[in-house]
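Human: For the file, kindly provide a plain-text protein record giving the amino acid sequence and the backbone structure tokens, at your earliest convenience.
Assistant:
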Amino acid sequence: MAKLYEYFKQLTDEGGSDLHFAAGLEPRLRTHGDLKAMQGRPALDGDQLDALLREIAAPEQWQVFEDSGDLDFAIGVPGVARFRANYFRQERGSAAVFRIIPEKIPALEDLGAPEAVANLADLQRGLVLVTGPTGSGKSTTLAAIIDRINRNLTKHIVTIEDPVEFVHTGRQSIISHREVGEHTDSFREGLKAAIRQDADVILVGELRDLETISLAITAAEMGSLVFGTLHTNSAPKTVDRLIDVFPSDEQAQVRLSLSESLAAVVAQLLLPTADGKGRVAVHEILLRAKGLGNIIREGNTPMIASVIQGGRGLGMQAMDDALLECVKNGRITAEDALRKATDRAKFETQLR
């Protein structure tokens, strides 16, 4: 058994989410958002850490790391969990971060997702974006939505990821997992192929560049239900980000395409619970509604906030409203909510 598995076991036993290594420093784990030193685990020098990391990497993966100084892959440890691994070189030598991917895919109900998020699984077509900073639970939310589709609908689902994280077993649906670098050359190539593969549902791990974004919009226009992620923190900023990646002379056409294909934006944050024993996801939700298409076509994204407020009966909600509700329910502290609020001055007044 690889020595690293002992660290993985300790991570899961202590309820952690991430495991950090850096040459010359003691290993650390992240629990409920905070980093702390692992008990009973001394610092590792460069040679010790390299030996630890090399043991679980395939020879060709280690060669990629040696050549480039970076490596991403996923590894499953039976009876423990699946982990997303990132190796990198830094000033003192090697370093690595492992993120736990639960073997059991959580249900949307267990995640506390609003009904409007769960209902995204019932969409027939369109572009759905789940956004937020790194570590905000985007992949987990998307996995739960895909799992809901898989359990209830007969679809062909294609996931394009780097690396593959949650592994779904086909139930009502057929699921094809494709890993960038192993099964397809890039997100772009994977998306092009998915359009030809009669995919009803396409999950794109990350919309990284102009061509990938363009293909995702095209696939949604052609009738697929496309899920993707971005590192934006609100619905208006997400729309702006999608459009701004294109040259100025193409943006009018992109606005037109996006106005017809965008089905939903879910901006997600993960905050510590008030008792410090866990974390809770908080969502801003924008759904397709009357007037949204015109706003996108006209480039008037500040008006998206008005669409959200006017669509509360449909399940839409602004991030600040969701944060305030969590404070009122005692799920998170006012201090944590205030740090994440979009309009802090107004939010502080509402808290009072």
